[in-house]
Design brief:
This protein is of the alpha/beta class and about 425 residues long. It has three domains: about 5-60 and about 155-345, Zn peptidases (Aminopeptidase, 3-Layer(aba) Sandwich); about 60-155, Domain of unknown function DUF2172 (Glucose Oxidase, domain 1); about 350-425, Arc Repressor Mutant, subunit A (Orthogonal Bundle). Helices cover about 30% and strands about 25% of the residues. The chain is built from twelve helices and 19 strands. The protein has helices at about 5-15, 25-35, 100-105, 135, 185-205, 220-230, 260-275, 290-295, 330-345, 375-390, 395-405, 410-420; strands at about 45-50, 50-55, 55, 60-70, 75-80, 95-100, 105-110, 130, 145-155, 155-165, 170-180, 210-215, 235-240, 250-255, 280, 300-305, 350-355, 390-395, 425. The strands form five sheets. Strands 1-10-12-11-13-16-14-15 form an eight-stranded mixed beta sheet, sandwiched between helices. Strands 5-4-9-6 form a four-stranded antiparallel beta sheet. Helix 10 (about 375-390) packs across helix 12 (about 410-420). The radius of gyration is 26 Å and the shape is elongated. The two termini are about 35 Å apart. The structure holds zinc ion. Zinc ion (ZN) binds near residues 181, 187 and 317.
């Protein structure tokens, strides 16, 4: 499949998921995971309300069918059916008649962006509210208004999905994205789309690592997964949290808390050698679920890959974060970067030179000029010399690629050829 086709497919998935009203629990998450499950077979977990997970408790499940504010003529001046952002997430049910003054404390607008609907939630404080355009609010008379939120907040479950691409080793690469935002495209759907496509592409290979894809509600979902997988966490050798994966900004990598983990070095290498404009920033305990994976008790080597980071663009958490805000090209670019990261991770090893006293004679083993006539012959030979010289058990292939300024793939190919000739062995 071409990069263009990948981009179109991911954008189509964003558009399909966009209308669904998601939250940290409820049928919107289930419906979303059902749709992702058409591309990759997800294992779904349902964790009951009240389950204690680390320092948290799985909340009651929230579902919503309809909501509106109607004026005296019966017209819906604010309508959930027009945009699910109109209702504060986790609003308790309401059915009342109220004046504008009484209603006002439940209304949220963005005075600085009067044409946009804000996104607001109230997961852990029992309340209700509507979000609307400041421009709409300015047109409202004194009322009274008929106010309805047809929601339920009841014992149920928290739902998350996992997909595992089995590798040759049990060591895992974790790829995680959040699935808890309603109609917001860059902030959750683009990450879901990139993760889904990456999972499918990896499943077509026979990877070295086991790849675990997590589709979880933000914060509470990651905390729930960590609480239920404490013994598995040690197998996570590398990880990426994907979010804001489709806007037109440059790629931004936020290092893991460890700061110089292999994933941090691999992503930096891929971004630097790709020629892409990019940003690399240090870890901070803010943003997406890297906050949980990098909490000090776990301290997993998990970085965060976004385009424009968390809260870094004016469309963030507003109705302007719609499918037009994300592009097939940007999502394809994010996907290719993730793919290149896996290409390096998969082959990055330490080798040991078995003939370290003087240079071994390559010609006798058919390694010198064996690819004679090819324009990359010199690069191939240089790669072999570098691998032989630095394969002292201390240097990884990534170290050698960085030191030699040769492409990682050339260094890895050289190591493979040398191994075939019995000149190096895999060390770790
Ligand atoms: Zn968000």
């Amino acid at each position: 499949m071409t990069v263009e086709a990948d981009g179109r497919e991911m954008h189509a998935l964003v558009k399909r998921l966009y209308p669904i009203c998601r939250s940290i629990t409820g049928d919107g998450v289930r419906r979303t995971l059902d749709i992702v499950g058409e591309s990759v077979p997800l294992e779904i977990s349902e964790v009951p309300t009240g389950t204690e997970v680390l320092d948290w408790t799985v909340p009651r499940e929230w579902n919503i069918r309809d909501a509106y504010i109607k004026d005296a003529s019966g017209a819906r001046v604010v309508d959930f059916a027009e945009s699910n952002l109109h209702v504060v997430g986790y609003s308790v049910p309401v059915s009342a008649t109220m004046t504008l003054d009484e209603l006002r404390e439940h209304l949220h607008t963005l005075p600085g962006q009067p044409g946009l609907i804000p996104y607001r939630t109230s997961y852990y404080a029992e309340t209700w509210g509507f979000c609307l355009r400041e421009n709409t609010l300015a047109t409202l008379g004194d009322g009274p208004y008929e106010v309805l939120i047809d929601s339920t907040l009841a014992d149920g479950h928290l739902t998350y999905g996992e997909y595992v691409v089995p590798g040759r080793v049990a060591d895992e690469v974790l790829v995680s994205c959040h699935v808890c935002h309603p109609s917001l495209a860059n902030d959750n759907l683009a990450g879901i789309a990139v993760a889904t496509r990456l999972a499918r592409r990896l499943a077509e290979t026979a990877p070295w690592y086991t790849y675990r894809f997590l589709f979880t509600p933000g914060t509470i979902g990651a905390i729930t997964w960590l609480a239920r997988n404490r013994e598995r966490v040690e197998q996570v050798k590398h990880g990426l949290v994907l979010a804001c994966a489709g806007d037109s900004g440059v790629l931004t990598y936020k290092r893991s808390r460890q700061g110089n983990a292999e994933i941090d070095r691999v992503v930096r290498y891929v971004l630097r050698t790709s020629g892409r404009d990019h940003e690399i920033v240090d870890f901070s305990p803010y943003g997406y679920d890297e906050r949980q994976f990098c909490s000090p008790g776990f301290n997993l080597p998990v970085g965060s890959l976004t385009r424009t980071p968390y809260a870094g663009y004016p469309e963030y958490h507003t109705s302007a974060d719609d499918p037009d805000f994300v592009s097939p090209e940007a999502m394809a670019d994010t996907l290719e970067t993730c793919w290149e990261v896996t290409r390096v991770l998969e082959r990055n090893r330490h080798y040991l030179n078995l003939s370290p006293y003087g240079e071994p004679q390559l010609g006798r083993r058919g390694l010198y000029g064996s690819l004679g006539g090819r324009s990359d012959t010199r690069q191939t030979q240089m790669a072999m010399l570098w691998v032989l010289n630095l394969s002292d058990g201390e240097h990884s292939l990534l170290d050698i690629a960085e030191r030699s300024h040769l492409p990682f793939a050339a260094v890895a190919d050289a190591a493979q050829a040398l191994r075939g000739a019995g000149l190096v062995k895999e060390w770790r």
